[in-house]
Write a structure and sequence with these properties.
Layout lengths: L1 E5 L4 H11 L3 E5 L12 E4 L1 H9 L10 E2 L2 E6 L4 E6 L11 E4 H14 L4 E2 L4 E6 L5 E5 L4 E4 L1 E4 L6 H6 L7 E13 L9 E6 L4 E8 L2 E9 L6 H6 L2 H11 L7 H6 L5 E8 L7 E2 L2 E3 L2 H4 L8 H19 L2 H29 L4 H21 L22
Parallel strand pairs: 1-2, 1-12, 2-8, 5-14, 12-19
Antiparallel strand pairs: 3-7, 4-7, 5-6, 9-10, 10-11, 13-16, 13-17, 14-15, 15-16, 18-19
Helix pairs in contact: 1-3, 1-9, 2-9, 9-10
The structure holds flavin-adenine dinucleotide.
Length: about 400
Protein backbone atom coordinates (compact mmCIF):
# COMPACT_ATOMS: atom_id res chain seq x y z
CA UNK A 1 0.00 0.00 0.00
CA UNK A 2 1.12 3.57 -0.72
CA UNK A 3 -0.40 6.33 1.38
CA UNK A 4 -0.75 9.99 0.48
CA UNK A 5 -0.74 12.07 3.66
CA UNK A 6 -1.97 15.66 3.45
CA UNK A 7 -0.43 17.96 6.08
CA UNK A 8 2.94 17.99 7.86
CA UNK A 9 1.74 19.36 11.20
CA UNK A 10 1.76 16.91 14.09
CA UNK A 11 -0.51 14.17 12.77
CA UNK A 12 1.06 13.85 9.30
CA UNK A 13 4.65 12.95 10.25
CA UNK A 14 3.49 10.78 13.18
CA UNK A 15 1.11 8.83 10.94
CA UNK A 16 3.83 8.38 8.31
CA UNK A 17 6.22 6.95 10.90
CA UNK A 18 3.53 4.64 12.27
CA UNK A 19 2.67 3.47 8.75
CA UNK A 20 6.34 2.75 8.12
CA UNK A 21 6.34 0.58 11.26
CA UNK A 22 3.32 -1.23 9.79
CA UNK A 23 5.16 -1.77 6.51
CA UNK A 24 3.21 0.84 4.53
CA UNK A 25 4.95 3.53 2.43
CA UNK A 26 3.76 7.11 2.81
CA UNK A 27 4.61 10.53 1.40
CA UNK A 28 3.67 13.64 3.36
CA UNK A 29 2.43 16.68 1.37
CA UNK A 30 2.48 20.07 3.10
CA UNK A 31 0.86 23.26 1.75
CA UNK A 32 3.47 25.65 3.14
CA UNK A 33 7.17 25.84 2.52
CA UNK A 34 7.46 25.43 6.25
CA UNK A 35 4.65 24.92 8.75
CA UNK A 36 3.67 28.46 9.64
CA UNK A 37 0.30 28.33 11.39
CA UNK A 38 0.40 29.38 15.04
CA UNK A 39 4.18 28.94 15.18
CA UNK A 40 4.54 31.41 18.03
CA UNK A 41 2.43 29.40 20.43
CA UNK A 42 3.28 26.41 22.58
CA UNK A 43 1.37 23.35 23.66
CA UNK A 44 1.43 20.67 26.29
CA UNK A 45 1.67 17.00 25.45
CA UNK A 46 -0.11 14.73 27.91
CA UNK A 47 0.90 11.26 29.10
CA UNK A 48 -1.34 9.49 26.54
CA UNK A 49 0.24 11.35 23.62
CA UNK A 50 3.76 10.78 24.94
CA UNK A 51 3.01 7.07 25.38
CA UNK A 52 1.78 6.87 21.77
CA UNK A 53 5.02 8.51 20.61
CA UNK A 54 6.96 5.90 22.56
CA UNK A 55 5.35 3.20 20.39
CA UNK A 56 7.30 4.84 17.56
CA UNK A 57 10.53 4.91 19.58
CA UNK A 58 10.31 8.65 20.30
CA UNK A 59 11.05 9.56 23.91
CA UNK A 60 9.54 12.55 25.73
CA UNK A 61 13.07 13.93 26.30
CA UNK A 62 13.66 14.25 22.54
CA UNK A 63 10.90 16.77 21.96
CA UNK A 64 12.69 19.93 23.07
CA UNK A 65 10.16 20.76 25.77
CA UNK A 66 10.26 20.88 29.56
CA UNK A 67 8.55 18.88 32.28
CA UNK A 68 5.21 20.25 33.48
CA UNK A 69 4.22 17.64 36.08
CA UNK A 70 1.34 19.46 37.77
CA UNK A 71 -1.13 22.30 37.51
CA UNK A 72 -2.75 24.46 40.10
CA UNK A 73 -6.05 26.30 39.64
CA UNK A 74 -6.56 29.56 41.50
CA UNK A 75 -9.28 32.14 41.95
CA UNK A 76 -8.72 35.80 41.16
CA UNK A 77 -7.67 36.50 44.78
CA UNK A 78 -4.93 33.85 44.51
CA UNK A 79 -6.75 31.21 46.57
CA UNK A 80 -5.79 27.69 45.41
CA UNK A 81 -8.92 25.90 44.14
CA UNK A 82 -7.43 22.60 42.96
CA UNK A 83 -4.09 20.89 42.35
CA UNK A 84 -3.85 18.32 39.55
CA UNK A 85 -1.01 15.92 38.70
CA UNK A 86 0.02 15.72 35.03
CA UNK A 87 2.62 12.97 35.44
CA UNK A 88 1.89 9.25 35.53
CA UNK A 89 3.39 6.63 37.76
CA UNK A 90 4.15 4.31 34.85
CA UNK A 91 7.38 2.46 34.10
CA UNK A 92 8.46 5.15 31.66
CA UNK A 93 8.06 7.97 34.20
CA UNK A 94 5.81 9.86 31.80
CA UNK A 95 5.63 13.58 32.57
CA UNK A 96 3.64 16.12 30.52
CA UNK A 97 5.91 18.09 28.21
CA UNK A 98 5.38 21.72 27.31
CA UNK A 99 6.98 22.57 23.99
CA UNK A 100 6.88 25.30 21.39
CA UNK A 101 4.53 24.21 18.64
CA UNK A 102 7.11 25.07 15.99
CA UNK A 103 9.81 23.00 17.78
CA UNK A 104 7.51 20.00 17.96
CA UNK A 105 6.60 20.30 14.27
CA UNK A 106 10.25 20.51 13.26
CA UNK A 107 11.34 17.61 15.47
CA UNK A 108 8.60 15.26 14.26
CA UNK A 109 9.13 16.22 10.65
CA UNK A 110 12.92 15.87 10.91
CA UNK A 111 12.55 12.50 12.57
CA UNK A 112 10.25 11.32 9.78
CA UNK A 113 12.78 12.50 7.17
CA UNK A 114 15.61 10.83 9.10
CA UNK A 115 13.63 7.57 8.85
CA UNK A 116 13.46 7.94 5.09
CA UNK A 117 9.92 9.31 4.75
CA UNK A 118 9.53 11.85 1.92
CA UNK A 119 8.02 15.21 2.96
CA UNK A 120 7.08 17.50 0.06
CA UNK A 121 6.51 21.22 0.60
CA UNK A 122 4.48 23.73 -1.39
CA UNK A 123 1.87 21.02 -2.04
CA UNK A 124 -1.55 22.49 -1.23
CA UNK A 125 -4.22 19.87 -1.86
CA UNK A 126 -7.12 21.18 -3.91
CA UNK A 127 -8.91 17.98 -4.88
CA UNK A 128 -8.92 14.21 -4.49
CA UNK A 129 -10.48 11.72 -6.90
CA UNK A 130 -11.05 8.02 -6.42
CA UNK A 131 -10.44 6.03 -9.62
CA UNK A 132 -12.54 2.99 -10.67
CA UNK A 133 -9.70 0.65 -9.61
CA UNK A 134 -9.84 2.11 -6.06
CA UNK A 135 -6.68 4.23 -6.30
CA UNK A 136 -6.74 7.91 -5.24
CA UNK A 137 -5.33 10.88 -7.12
CA UNK A 138 -4.50 14.02 -5.16
CA UNK A 139 -4.34 17.30 -7.09
CA UNK A 140 -2.28 20.17 -5.79
CA UNK A 141 -2.50 23.92 -6.33
CA UNK A 142 0.84 23.91 -8.19
CA UNK A 143 -0.71 21.72 -10.91
CA UNK A 144 1.00 18.47 -9.87
CA UNK A 145 -0.71 15.25 -8.79
CA UNK A 146 0.12 12.23 -6.66
CA UNK A 147 -1.42 8.76 -6.81
CA UNK A 148 -1.76 6.24 -4.00
CA UNK A 149 -3.90 3.47 -2.54
CA UNK A 150 -5.26 5.72 0.19
CA UNK A 151 -5.32 9.38 1.14
CA UNK A 152 -5.15 10.54 4.76
CA UNK A 153 -6.37 14.06 5.54
CA UNK A 154 -4.07 15.30 8.33
CA UNK A 155 -4.68 18.88 7.24
CA UNK A 156 -5.92 20.36 10.47
CA UNK A 157 -8.84 22.50 11.62
CA UNK A 158 -9.67 23.96 8.20
CA UNK A 159 -9.21 20.69 6.35
CA UNK A 160 -9.69 20.64 2.59
CA UNK A 161 -10.00 16.84 2.69
CA UNK A 162 -12.97 17.23 5.06
CA UNK A 163 -14.66 19.54 2.53
CA UNK A 164 -13.99 17.10 -0.28
CA UNK A 165 -15.51 14.23 1.70
CA UNK A 166 -18.55 16.27 2.76
CA UNK A 167 -19.04 19.71 1.14
CA UNK A 168 -21.87 20.39 3.63
CA UNK A 169 -19.86 19.62 6.75
CA UNK A 170 -20.49 22.05 9.63
CA UNK A 171 -17.83 24.76 9.97
CA UNK A 172 -15.58 24.97 13.04
CA UNK A 173 -17.33 26.37 16.14
CA UNK A 174 -16.07 29.39 18.02
CA UNK A 175 -15.70 28.53 21.73
CA UNK A 176 -16.15 32.04 23.15
CA UNK A 177 -12.49 32.76 23.92
CA UNK A 178 -9.59 34.53 22.28
CA UNK A 179 -6.21 32.97 22.90
CA UNK A 180 -2.83 34.65 23.29
CA UNK A 181 0.42 34.08 25.15
CA UNK A 182 4.13 34.57 25.21
CA UNK A 183 7.54 33.95 26.69
CA UNK A 184 8.57 36.33 29.48
CA UNK A 185 12.26 36.70 30.16
CA UNK A 186 14.29 38.22 32.94
CA UNK A 187 11.43 38.01 35.40
CA UNK A 188 11.05 35.68 38.36
CA UNK A 189 7.96 34.04 39.83
CA UNK A 190 7.66 32.26 43.16
CA UNK A 191 6.14 28.99 41.85
CA UNK A 192 8.15 25.75 41.44
CA UNK A 193 9.73 25.03 38.05
CA UNK A 194 7.26 23.18 35.81
CA UNK A 195 4.12 23.93 37.84
CA UNK A 196 1.38 25.40 35.62
CA UNK A 197 -0.44 28.04 37.67
CA UNK A 198 -3.82 28.95 36.22
CA UNK A 199 -6.01 31.77 37.47
CA UNK A 200 -9.70 32.40 36.86
CA UNK A 201 -9.28 36.18 36.79
CA UNK A 202 -12.01 38.77 37.22
CA UNK A 203 -12.10 39.50 33.48
CA UNK A 204 -10.02 36.77 31.80
CA UNK A 205 -8.07 33.56 32.41
CA UNK A 206 -4.29 33.59 32.89
CA UNK A 207 -1.81 30.70 33.13
CA UNK A 208 1.95 30.51 33.45
CA UNK A 209 4.68 27.94 33.96
CA UNK A 210 8.13 28.66 35.32
CA UNK A 211 10.60 27.05 32.92
CA UNK A 212 13.69 28.04 34.84
CA UNK A 213 15.38 31.17 36.15
CA UNK A 214 13.96 34.23 34.39
CA UNK A 215 12.08 32.15 31.79
CA UNK A 216 8.30 32.00 32.19
CA UNK A 217 5.81 30.79 29.55
CA UNK A 218 2.25 32.06 29.81
CA UNK A 219 -1.06 32.12 28.00
CA UNK A 220 -4.31 34.00 28.43
CA UNK A 221 -7.88 33.28 27.39
CA UNK A 222 -9.91 36.41 26.81
CA UNK A 223 -13.72 36.07 26.69
CA UNK A 224 -15.41 37.53 23.64
CA UNK A 225 -19.03 36.88 22.71
CA UNK A 226 -18.45 36.39 18.99
CA UNK A 227 -15.42 35.38 16.95
CA UNK A 228 -13.24 38.31 15.92
CA UNK A 229 -13.05 38.99 12.19
CA UNK A 230 -9.65 39.11 10.48
CA UNK A 231 -9.91 42.91 10.43
CA UNK A 232 -10.69 43.05 14.13
CA UNK A 233 -7.76 40.77 14.91
CA UNK A 234 -5.46 42.88 12.72
CA UNK A 235 -6.58 46.03 14.57
CA UNK A 236 -4.96 44.64 17.74
CA UNK A 237 -1.51 46.06 17.06
CA UNK A 238 1.12 44.71 19.50
CA UNK A 239 0.91 47.89 21.61
CA UNK A 240 -2.90 47.93 21.73
CA UNK A 241 -3.03 44.25 22.61
CA UNK A 242 -0.46 44.64 25.41
CA UNK A 243 -2.47 47.56 26.82
CA UNK A 244 -5.68 45.55 26.66
CA UNK A 245 -4.15 42.57 28.48
CA UNK A 246 -2.73 44.91 31.11
CA UNK A 247 -6.22 46.32 31.65
CA UNK A 248 -7.83 42.88 31.82
CA UNK A 249 -5.52 41.54 34.53
CA UNK A 250 -5.05 44.77 36.52
CA UNK A 251 -7.27 43.63 39.43
CA UNK A 252 -6.11 40.02 39.79
CA UNK A 253 -3.62 38.51 42.21
CA UNK A 254 -0.49 36.95 40.67
CA UNK A 255 2.32 37.95 38.33
CA UNK A 256 0.28 38.45 35.12
CA UNK A 257 1.14 42.13 34.73
CA UNK A 258 4.88 41.55 35.30
CA UNK A 259 4.90 38.68 32.83
CA UNK A 260 3.05 40.67 30.17
CA UNK A 261 5.48 43.57 30.64
CA UNK A 262 8.48 41.22 30.41
CA UNK A 263 7.35 39.65 27.11
CA UNK A 264 8.91 41.33 24.08
CA UNK A 265 6.64 39.68 21.47
CA UNK A 266 3.19 38.73 22.66
CA UNK A 267 1.57 36.15 20.38
CA UNK A 268 -1.28 38.03 18.62
CA UNK A 269 -4.80 36.96 19.63
CA UNK A 270 -6.64 34.26 17.73
CA UNK A 271 -10.14 32.76 17.93
CA UNK A 272 -10.33 29.44 19.73
CA UNK A 273 -12.32 26.95 17.64
CA UNK A 274 -13.34 23.32 17.87
CA UNK A 275 -15.30 20.74 15.85
CA UNK A 276 -17.90 19.12 18.10
CA UNK A 277 -18.78 16.48 15.54
CA UNK A 278 -17.66 15.86 11.98
CA UNK A 279 -20.35 13.73 10.28
CA UNK A 280 -18.17 12.09 7.61
CA UNK A 281 -14.73 10.80 8.61
CA UNK A 282 -14.04 8.65 5.56
CA UNK A 283 -15.28 7.39 2.22
CA UNK A 284 -13.60 4.55 0.32
CA UNK A 285 -9.83 5.06 0.44
CA UNK A 286 -10.01 8.65 1.79
CA UNK A 287 -10.16 9.41 5.51
CA UNK A 288 -9.61 12.11 8.13
CA UNK A 289 -7.33 12.07 11.14
CA UNK A 290 -6.19 14.50 13.85
CA UNK A 291 -7.67 18.02 14.01
CA UNK A 292 -9.25 17.54 10.58
CA UNK A 293 -11.60 14.99 12.15
CA UNK A 294 -11.93 16.28 15.70
CA UNK A 295 -10.32 19.63 16.55
CA UNK A 296 -10.58 20.30 20.27
CA UNK A 297 -10.13 23.50 22.24
CA UNK A 298 -6.57 24.02 23.59
CA UNK A 299 -8.20 24.21 27.03
CA UNK A 300 -8.21 20.41 27.00
CA UNK A 301 -4.42 20.13 26.59
CA UNK A 302 -5.28 17.13 24.40
CA UNK A 303 -5.38 18.16 20.72
CA UNK A 304 -1.84 17.11 19.93
CA UNK A 305 -2.01 14.00 22.08
CA UNK A 306 -5.21 12.78 20.41
CA UNK A 307 -3.65 13.48 17.01
CA UNK A 308 -0.65 11.31 17.90
CA UNK A 309 -2.89 8.50 19.21
CA UNK A 310 -4.81 8.69 15.92
CA UNK A 311 -1.71 8.24 13.78
CA UNK A 312 -0.50 5.17 15.64
CA UNK A 313 -3.96 3.58 15.78
CA UNK A 314 -4.82 4.17 12.13
CA UNK A 315 -1.54 2.55 11.12
CA UNK A 316 -2.42 -0.47 13.23
CA UNK A 317 -5.85 -0.75 11.64
CA UNK A 318 -4.33 -0.51 8.17
CA UNK A 319 -1.77 -3.17 9.10
CA UNK A 320 -4.48 -5.54 10.31
CA UNK A 321 -7.32 -4.81 7.88
CA UNK A 322 -5.35 -4.57 4.69
CA UNK A 323 -7.90 -2.55 2.75
CA UNK A 324 -8.19 1.18 3.47
CA UNK A 325 -12.00 1.44 3.53
CA UNK A 326 -12.48 -1.13 6.29
CA UNK A 327 -9.46 0.20 8.21
CA UNK A 328 -10.96 3.74 8.18
CA UNK A 329 -14.33 2.36 9.33
CA UNK A 330 -12.73 0.43 12.20
CA UNK A 331 -10.67 3.49 13.11
CA UNK A 332 -13.77 5.66 13.34
CA UNK A 333 -15.58 3.04 15.41
CA UNK A 334 -12.75 2.99 17.92
CA UNK A 335 -12.13 6.76 18.06
CA UNK A 336 -15.31 8.78 17.67
CA UNK A 337 -16.71 8.22 21.16
CA UNK A 338 -13.46 9.07 22.94
CA UNK A 339 -12.70 12.23 21.00
CA UNK A 340 -16.23 13.65 20.98
CA UNK A 341 -16.59 13.08 24.72
CA UNK A 342 -13.34 14.99 25.25
CA UNK A 343 -14.36 17.83 22.94
CA UNK A 344 -17.62 18.27 24.89
CA UNK A 345 -15.70 18.21 28.18
CA UNK A 346 -13.23 20.82 26.89
CA UNK A 347 -16.11 23.09 25.83
CA UNK A 348 -17.56 22.92 29.34
CA UNK A 349 -14.13 23.81 30.77
CA UNK A 350 -13.86 26.73 28.32
CA UNK A 351 -17.24 27.98 29.56
CA UNK A 352 -15.85 28.03 33.12
CA UNK A 353 -13.18 30.45 31.90
CA UNK A 354 -15.76 33.04 30.92
CA UNK A 355 -16.25 35.18 34.06
CA UNK A 356 -19.79 35.12 35.37
CA UNK A 357 -20.54 36.49 38.84
CA UNK A 358 -23.52 34.15 39.19
CA UNK A 359 -21.63 30.92 38.51
CA UNK A 360 -18.24 31.98 39.96
CA UNK A 361 -19.20 31.08 43.54
CA UNK A 362 -20.39 27.62 42.50
CA UNK A 363 -17.24 27.10 40.43
CA UNK A 364 -14.77 28.27 43.08
CA UNK A 365 -16.43 26.76 46.14
CA UNK A 366 -18.04 23.62 44.77
CA UNK A 367 -16.81 22.45 41.38
CA UNK A 368 -13.07 23.13 41.59
CA UNK A 369 -12.52 21.66 45.08
CA UNK A 370 -14.40 18.55 43.91
CA UNK A 371 -12.28 18.36 40.76
CA UNK A 372 -9.14 18.54 42.93
CA UNK A 373 -10.35 15.89 45.38
CA UNK A 374 -11.48 13.54 42.61
CA UNK A 375 -8.13 13.92 40.79
CA UNK A 376 -6.21 13.20 44.00
CA UNK A 377 -8.23 10.00 44.59
CA UNK A 378 -8.28 8.66 41.04
CA UNK A 379 -5.70 6.03 40.20
CA UNK A 380 -6.88 5.63 36.59
CA UNK A 381 -7.65 8.53 34.31
CA UNK A 382 -9.55 7.54 31.15
CA UNK A 383 -7.92 10.36 29.18
CA UNK A 384 -4.25 10.22 30.09
CA UNK A 385 -3.94 6.51 30.92
CA UNK A 386 -5.00 5.48 27.42
CA UNK A 387 -2.28 3.21 26.02
CA UNK A 388 -1.90 1.56 22.63
CA UNK A 389 -0.58 -1.99 22.49
CA UNK A 390 1.00 -2.08 19.05
CA UNK A 391 1.33 -5.86 19.03
CA UNK A 392 -2.27 -6.61 19.96
CA UNK A 393 -4.61 -7.38 17.06
CA UNK A 394 -6.67 -4.37 16.05
CA UNK A 395 -9.96 -5.69 17.41
CA UNK A 396 -8.63 -5.58 21.00
CA UNK A 397 -8.36 -1.83 21.35
CA UNK A 398 -8.94 0.18 24.49
CA UNK A 399 -12.49 1.60 24.55
C1 LIG B 1 -2.03 28.05 19.41
C2 LIG B 1 -2.46 26.68 19.72
C3 LIG B 1 -2.22 26.14 21.01
C4 LIG B 1 -2.54 24.82 21.25
N1 LIG B 1 -2.30 24.27 22.49
C5 LIG B 1 -2.44 22.92 22.66
C6 LIG B 1 -2.04 22.24 23.88
O1 LIG B 1 -1.61 22.87 24.85
N2 LIG B 1 -2.10 20.89 23.92
C7 LIG B 1 -2.56 20.17 22.86
O2 LIG B 1 -2.57 18.93 22.94
N3 LIG B 1 -2.99 20.76 21.72
C8 LIG B 1 -2.93 22.12 21.59
N4 LIG B 1 -3.30 22.71 20.44
C9 LIG B 1 -3.88 21.89 19.38
C10 LIG B 1 -2.81 21.19 18.59
O3 LIG B 1 -1.85 22.09 18.11
C11 LIG B 1 -3.53 20.49 17.45
O4 LIG B 1 -4.48 19.62 18.01
C12 LIG B 1 -2.54 19.69 16.62
O5 LIG B 1 -1.61 20.57 16.04
C13 LIG B 1 -3.28 18.92 15.56
O6 LIG B 1 -2.35 18.42 14.65
P1 LIG B 1 -2.73 18.23 13.13
O7 LIG B 1 -1.48 17.72 12.51
O8 LIG B 1 -3.96 17.43 13.03
O9 LIG B 1 -3.09 19.68 12.60
P2 LIG B 1 -2.09 20.88 12.38
O10 LIG B 1 -1.03 20.87 13.42
O11 LIG B 1 -2.93 22.10 12.26
O12 LIG B 1 -1.39 20.57 11.01
C14 LIG B 1 -2.10 20.59 9.78
C15 LIG B 1 -1.10 20.78 8.67
O13 LIG B 1 -1.77 20.63 7.44
C16 LIG B 1 -1.35 21.64 6.55
N5 LIG B 1 -2.40 21.87 5.56
C17 LIG B 1 -3.59 22.50 5.74
N6 LIG B 1 -4.32 22.50 4.60
C18 LIG B 1 -3.56 21.85 3.68
C19 LIG B 1 -3.78 21.51 2.30
N7 LIG B 1 -4.91 21.85 1.64
N8 LIG B 1 -2.81 20.85 1.64
C20 LIG B 1 -1.66 20.48 2.29
N9 LIG B 1 -1.40 20.77 3.59
C21 LIG B 1 -2.36 21.45 4.29
C22 LIG B 1 -1.10 22.83 7.47
O14 LIG B 1 -0.24 23.79 6.87
C23 LIG B 1 -0.47 22.15 8.67
O15 LIG B 1 0.93 22.04 8.57
C24 LIG B 1 -3.09 24.05 20.21
C25 LIG B 1 -3.38 24.63 18.96
C26 LIG B 1 -3.09 25.94 18.73
C27 LIG B 1 -3.42 26.57 17.39
Amino acid sequence: MRAIIIGAGITGPVTAMALQKAGIDATVHEAYERTADGVGAYLTLAANGLAALRVLGIDQRELGGFDTPALELRGSSGRVLAHLAMSRDDDAGTVSQTVRRSDLYVRLRDEAVRRGIPVEYGKRLVDATTLPDGAVVASFADGTTAEGDLLIGADGLNSRVREILDPGCPPPRYTGLLNTGGYASGVSVDTPVGLFTMTFGKRAFFAYANRGPGDVWWFANVPRARAATDDELAAWTPDRWRAELTRLFADDDGPALDLIAATPDIVPPWNTMDLPTVPVWHRGPVGLIGDAAHAISPTSGQGASLAIEDGVLLARFLRDHGDPASAFAAFEASRRRRVEKLIAQAKRTSNQKIPNPLTRVVRDHLIMPLVGKAAARTTHDWVTDYRIDWDAPADRLPA
